Amino acid sequence: MDDLTDEERELAAMVREFADTVVAPRSYEADRTHTLPMGVVAQMGELGLFGLPFPEEYGGQGGDYMALGLAIEALGRVDQSIAITLEAGVSLGAMPVFRFGTEEQKQEFLPDLLAGRALAGFGLTEPEAGSDAGATRTTAHLDGGEWVVDGTKQFITNSGTSITRFVTVTAVTGTTDGRKEISTIIVPNGTPGFTVEPAYDKVGWNASDTHPLTFAGARVPEANLLGTRGSGFRNFLSILDEGRIAIAALATGAAEGCLEAAVDYARSRTVFGSALSTRQNAQFTLARMRARVHTARLAWHHAARLRDAGKPFAEQAAIAKLVSGEAAMDNARDATQIFGGNGFMNEFPVARHYRDSKILEIGEGTTEVQLLVIARALGLNG
Questions:
Q1: What pTM was computed for the model?
Q2: In the predicted model, is pLDDT for residue 382 greater than 70?
Q3: What is the pLDDT of residues 313-356, one digit of tens each?
């Protein structure tokens, strides 16, 4: 991490210590019981992690996306569910309000979101609209000064916790020249007609809060429109570009967590009279894992620096997510192999990383979407 400032190093070290002493000891039980430890979330709020990339006037820390990425990476080493709770809480919960909200919306929602006293979700994905977000079927129409929302959303993070305050949903609010007009609308939890369905039984990220959502005539004030009408899809894409940097940081942390665990295990594990770490095949595996971590970290650092400097970064964010997601999945597989039978036991962190890491090649833009973004940056539009 030679490119970090002293302040950034201090932040990374602080969150790493928090991850090792507070998060890690609770990770196995939280994963086993599919329970998000709200006490840990509260402590993250007290540390200021949810407010890292926001200005102080709204209760933030005055930092940037580099700072957020460092915190997420440190958490991702030991618990991806906790890391994604922070990532989604910032990138998908608070950031849309900060970027596109009115001053009244910012004053109402941001202080609690940035302090970790509240969480919010972003309802984009639907059964027929994943990577093809333009296929959105959820609708919203105005009636008597209120938006009436109907439809379904799926895979929505932080949507059903005890402190979830609202979900921002994309909805078709009309048509323009035959094209769907997609807007974003804030729907508070507890709104009649808005149902948070039972949580998913997932392969991984078991301690992360994830639900399908149903809207049946859910009515909210017209003032709950977030951003200008018809700008919802465009605004979401800009949010997604930033989110890919944060996901890349999470994936880098996961890849490093697998490497650290595998190195420690290889040194302590004796096979045929000598430490596994003395075997060349194990050394080569660990060396490749180290190279993946290094490459992934360089990629997301580069994207974050570009973003924070106000320069174009969409292609670099896609590259970072592509490289780091594959690094996390590959390192999880290799670490599990190093651990042998123990790698198949959920009590070991590498087993959780093995289950958790696959979603890093899917969520917030699949690997194929990243390749498409990169190809278009090359001018290959077909």
A1: 0.95
A2: no
A3: 999 999 999 999 999 999 999 999 999 999 999 999 999 999 99
pLDDT tens sequence across 160-206: 999 999 999 999 999 888 788 999 999 999 999 999 999 999 999 99
User: Residue 209 and residue 81: Cα distance in Å, rounded?
Assistant: 8
Give strand pairing partners of 142: 147
Q: What is the mean pLDDT of the chain?
A: 95
Residue type, 157: T
Structure tokens at 248: 């890349």
Beta-carbon contacts of residue 345 (< 8 Å; ≥ 6 apart)? 351
Mean per-residue pLDDT, 140-161 = 97
DSSP-H helix ranges across the chain: 6-18, 24-33, 38-46, 65-76, 80-88, 95-100, 103-114, 232-268, 280-308, 314-339, 349-356, 367-377
Task: Say if residue 1's pLDDT is above 70.
Answer: no
Distance from C-alpha of 110 to C-alpha of 324, rounded to nearest angstrom: 30
Q: Is 364 a catalytic residue?
A: yes
Strand bridging mode 210-221 / 225-226: unpaired
What whole-number distance in Å separates Cα of residue 101 and Cα of residue 217? 24
**DSSP per-residue letters across 299-326:** HHHHHHHHHHTT---HHHHHHHHHHHHH
Of 88, 82, 92, residue with least CA distance to 22? 82
Q: Based on the number of CB atoms within 10 Å of its own CB, is 59 exposed (0-12), middle (13-18) or buried (19 or more)?
A: middle
Q: Which residues of 309-322 are buried (b: 16+ CB within 10 A; e: fewer)?
A: eeeebbbbbbbbbb
C-alpha span between 80 and 204 (Å, rounded) = 9
Catalytic residue, chosen from 108, 222, 364, 368, is 364
Q: How far apart are CA 243 and CA 69, in angstroms?
A: 10
Q: What is the phi/psi pair of residue 182, to 5°?
A: -105, 125
How much is the pLDDT for 381?
Answer: 79
